[in-house]
Amino acid sequence: MKEKLVVLSGAGISAESGVKTFRDSDGLWEDHRVEDVASPEGFERNPQLVLNFYNQRRKQLLEVKPNRAHEILAELENDFDVTIITQNVDDLHERAGSTKVLHLHGELKKARPVDDDSEIISWEIDLNLGDCTDNGIQLRPHIVWFGEMVTEMENAVKIVEEADLLLIIGTSMNVYPAAGLIHNVSSNCEIFVIDPKLPAQFKANSNCFQTTATEGMELLKKQLLARRI
Length: 229
Known about the structure:
The chain has helices spanning 11-15, 34-37, 40-45, 47-61, 68-75, 92-96, 153-161, 213-226, and strands at 4-9, 28-29, 32-33, 81-86, 101-103, 106-113, 121-122, 139-143, 165-169, 190-194, 208-209.
């Protein structure tokens, strides 16, 4: 049986494809306050502003493509049972070929009714006021906004609990509840970290790479496959 490799990925892996990270240094997201475009209250105040914001994010996905780090994760499915738990709302993991991807914070190319987070539909064009379900309910982006429940957390915990190997890549693991997933690994699970801003406690660990996502994945792939020979 293949070892279970669970990957926790964040904005850092998509940044190398040209996807902007969540917030710039000034605390703004694409010149907007996060509270205005990523909260239920912001949507209630100005729904069209929020819809326009995500329409632009969706269009940007057409301009980017998976990078080598995404591709290596997909290639590792040849030798490992790989499941990716991502905080990213883009589809770059899937486009690179990964077959088991759980999106904690939703997906740009999906929408759902404002009154039901379980009825999820594919949506790849602009989403505007007046776009409704057959029952006349307004649609909204399938994105987990600040203050909303991360409904996939229960599934994510189960996946992490069964991991033989855990890789943390492109995420500072400072955003909860996602950051708490590392506490659900078994005592036998081996942990790897790839991040250019590697915390001090990991720097002396041979399983941790203070590099970009692509450089780190090249090194990790060699290390993992060498152990299987």
